[in-house]
Specification:
Blueprint (H helix, E strand, L loop, with lengths): L5 H38 L5 H42 L2 E2 L6 H14 L5 E5 L6 E4 L7 E5 H6 L2 H17 L1 H35 L3 H10 L11 H27 L3 H14 L2 H11 L10 H4 L20 H12 L30 E3 L2 E3 L16 E3 L2 E3 L4 E2 L2 E2 L2
Parallel strand pairs: 2-4
Antiparallel strand pairs: 1-2, 3-4, 5-6, 7-8, 9-10
Length: about 400
Amino acid sequence: MAAYGLYTHIASNKFRSMLLLAGLFLLIYVLVYAGALVAEVMIDSGRTVDYYLTRALRDLVSALPWATIAAAAWIVIAYFFHQKMIDAVTGGESVTRQQEPRLYNLLENLCISRGIPMPRLKVIDSPALNAFATGLNRSQYAITVTTGLLKALNDKEIEAVLGHELTHIKNGDVQLMVIAVIIAGVVGFFGELFFRLFTNLSWNSSGGGGGWSSSSRSSSSSSDRDSKGSGGGAIIVIIIAVALIVLAWLLSQVVKLALSRSREFLADAGSVELTKNPDAMISALRKIENRGELPDATSAVMELCVDNPREGFADLFATHPSVKSRVDALVKYAGGHDPGPLALPDETEPQDEPSAAGDQPPPATHGPWGDTPTAQPDNPPPLPDTTPRQGPFGPLQGPLQGPWGPRR
């Protein structure tokens, strides 16, 4: 469903969300079928390929209600507890106005000025420069920022980032991204589960005590059995199961492609519309550029962030456009000015302090009764009084002379 404007973009996001939820059930069924193939091989490895495919299909039909219930339960759990899951991964903590008055006031003023419901605020204690929004409904919406972002950006730049995330909420991007995180989590969990099963299966076959190896030897010793049923069919079916699991993983990666790159351009434009300051959004992007890596966050969580420095193979699976392309769009369509890559204050080298002897104050001299004050340039010693003095017969020329020299 193509999107040509803001409202069609929002409608497209809702349509894609429904497709992704349907795709979640499809991926679950594919994984269950792959698991049924492996189970049939473990039970009896001396059958033909057709036998395993048929038996696994029957197992899938039998397990279909349970798989559907499991997928639906996961969606319900993720709907109510996805924020806690993301916080557990990233370490985000809720903050109040008293804890973060600067951040809270910036977001509140932005929401009041545009009539937007106030989302919750969360902060991650990390030097990374990043932020993201989460939530599936109005009561769940939250914006999370890192402490590194708060230290590196000024108020105008932070306001621009908050406007970017508020636009994601307004446009319905948040729901789509959270659903993608849910699907990636399910596929990752079951994929790891099956690969662990394969590892145990290969260990049993190499140990000589497993059912697969013993049944293979018994089937190979039977002369009246078809050659396809002497273990070769089991190997082919295992390859098919692995291929299905890889296919499910690839489909979960395609989910990221559903997170259209245009959503970031629209969020940048929405931030400019909210703040009326394209230069603040540009400078914020330049400071965040290549500094947003959250080491403990999964790839699915990084897709939620303002900038995702993790690029896919040849940029094929990257869901975020480059910072340069986003800045170029703001310069072209919003009239902003690009300062180029920016260095943070702590990344600049400190200036050399003066070390010349002439730049240092002269040391204090010591006399027999204590320290002698050093004459400062601003307080020079008093000069002799050259004012003409009056004598009884008129003004005297020069200072008065005494027996031991001139009088002062």
